[in-house]
Amino acid sequence: MTRMDEMASWGIVETASRIAAGEVSAEEVARATLARIEASNERLGAFVDVTAGELLEGARAVDQRRARGEAAGKLAGVPLGIKDALCTRGVTTTCGSKVLRHRGEPWRPPYDATAVARLKGEGALLAGKCNMDEFAMGSSTENSAYFPSKNPVDPSRTPGGSSGGSAVAVAGRMTPGALGSDTGGSVRQPAAYTGCVGVKPTHGRVSRFGLVAYASSLDVVGPMASDVRGAARLLDVIAGHDPRDSTSLEAPVPSHEEACGRGVRGLRVGVPEEYFAAGLAPEVAASVREAIGALEAQGAEVRPVQLPHTRHAVATYYVLATAEASSNLSRFDGVRFGLRVEPPGADLASMYGATRNEGFGPEVRRRILLGTYVLSHGYYEAYYLKAQQVRTLIRRDFLEVFSSVDLVATPTAPTAAFRLGEQIDDPLTMYLNDIYTLPASLAGLPALSVPVRPAPAAGATPALPVGLQLIGPALGEPVLFAAAAAVEAAGLR
Ligand code: GLN
């Protein structure tokens, strides 16, 4: 193994501790990261902007602080990818859209998202902005205004979405970790498809300040990493109350990293039969059941549970998420941010129309239309209000289940990664990829995806990654990390 390959195999915790111990300099790590990106980004499409100068400069500053004997942060010198949906001061922030780009220039916000600022505060370094489906709407990154990202395991397949670029940065060993955002599965599903760890925290656990809004009652910033401990360390750093996000929770932040060592003896794991029904690929089911068996072998108690309203989750989500999106995206009007299209002689209304027509891609337009429709007079009660009521039923299902189990284990997605191009013309099929991730989003609960045994695929294709989803009660992230670490320790992949 070359020195560079060796560095690329380190997770977040290992990278940070080797830099802290002086075994490697932050600059060496940064150079290796840039070399990896250079070698594979064009082929895999992880990053829409690589911040090479900032990364090297930041790395040198970390090395200098270390040489002076100053205290280093928990992530000092660790390069990270950040989803293009999160504001990064002075750096490209386009949410995968043309609407945040004007005359060739991307929008560059004057501030960092809180999650990004907290990572930087612990010494983490920005490697670049990661590709995504436009406005986080999609499950394959094919809705990106830039290019689709490709799965490092098999580049003819999608890495999932919408945080696909973040997943590729991690699974393609360009950076040991990344941030994504998850509204209905956008961290968990790409983590499952590429074989990394992805965490959707409890809604409100991580500040949304500086996250470009899609559906605010569902949006959560979440870590992705090559291993469970790395994801835990990222969450430890980004979690906690932020006065700039009024929905952020005031609860104290426990050590998720420490929770990774707790073990699962006596943990009660519920397996909902609704998640193992028709539509689940048998090879995915087999890998997931084997992982649940591994938890049992380590002392967990596994029992069947029911989540009967699961079957309404897709319909409910696509009413509520589009309704919120239609309102949130009204701010992109050609006045305050990015693109402005002004046909000669245009009045204000036609400038708005021209800007939005040209700036938004087809999926975003579809969702704005759907969302506007379900909120409109005469349909509001039938669609939006009804969906809110069903959301309550879905939440109650979970409350009921968590009175008798500590966590719930399911597949993250019904299949392994599909081929690029295979579903893009069929929105309903695409939406069904989210069937297992949407319920936890609607209920606001924490959930993570951890890799289990890859599923054999037909033909010459290598085995494809599979994710086990663990869902917990509100603020139950520590239990999820304990169980995920146990699955990882079983060495199934
Ligand atoms: N795939 C889902 C959607 O298109 C979820 C996306 C997300 O979590 N941002 O809305």
Form type: globular
- What percentage of amino acids are in beta strands? 5-15%
User: How many beta strands in the DSSP annotation?
Assistant: 13
Helix content: 25-40%
Radius of gyration: 21 Å
**Which parts are unreliable, with pLDDT below 50 for 5 consecutive residues or more?**
none
Secondary structure class reads: alpha/beta
Ligand inventory reads: glutamine
Query: Distance between termini?
Result: 21 Å
The whole-number mean of residue pLDDT values reads 97
The description of the largest β-sheet is: 11 strands, mixed
What's the total helix number? 17
Spatial strand sequence of the major β-sheet:
1-5-2-6-8-7-12-13-11-9-10
Topology pattern, helix = H, strand = E: HHHEHEEEHEHEHEEHHEHEHHHHEHHEEH
Concise description?
This protein has a domain at 316-381. 39% of the residues lie in helices and 14% in strands. It has helices spanning 3-8, 12-20, 26-44, 52-67, 114-121, 164-171, 188-194, 228-238, 256-259, 282-297, 313-328, 348-359, 362-375, 381-401, 427-431, 438-443, 477-489, and strands spanning 47-50, 79-83, 101-102, 105-106, 125-130, 177-182, 197-200, 220-225, 268-272, 301-305, 407-411, 447-455, 464-471.
Describe this structure in words.
The structure is a single chain. This protein has 493 residues and is an alpha/beta fold. The protein has a domain at 316-381. The chain has helices spanning 3-8, 12-20, 26-44, 52-67, 114-121, 164-171, 188-194, 228-238, 256-259, 282-297, 313-328, 348-359, 362-375, 381-401, 427-431, 438-443, 477-489, and strands at residues 47-50, 79-83, 101-102, 105-106, 125-130, 177-182, 197-200, 220-225, 268-272, 301-305, 407-411, 447-455, 464-471. The strands form 2 sheets. It has an 11-stranded mixed beta sheet with strand order 1-5-2-6-8-7-12-13-11-9-10, with helices on both faces. Strands 3-4 form a two-stranded antiparallel sheet. Helix 3 packs antiparallel against helix 4, helix 11 packs across helix 13 (362-375) and helix 11 (313-328) packs across helix 14 (381-401). The longest helix has 21 residues, at 381-401. The relative contact order is 0.13. Bound molecules: glutamine. The site of glutamine has 13 residues, from loops. Glutamine binds at residues 136-139, 162, 182-186, 214, 321, 434.
